[in-house]
Amino acid sequence: MPKACVTHVIPLAHLVERKEGFETLHGHNYHVLLCIEKVLDEHRMVMDFSDIKSTLKSICRKIDHKVLIPTENPRLKVELGKGSVKLKLQNGKEYILPREDVEFIPTRNVTAEEIARHILSKLKELIPSDAKLELTLYETPSSFVKLEI
Ligand SMILES: [Zn+2]
Question: Helix/strand/coil (H, E, C) string of the chain?
Answer without folding.
Answer: CCEEEEEEEEEEEECCEECCEECCCEEEEEEEEEEEECCCCCCCCCCCHHHHHHHHHHHHCCCCCCEEEECCCCCEEEEECCCEEEEEECCCCEEEEEHHHEEEECCCCCCHHHHHHHHHHHHHHHCCCCCEEEEEEEEECCEEEEEEC
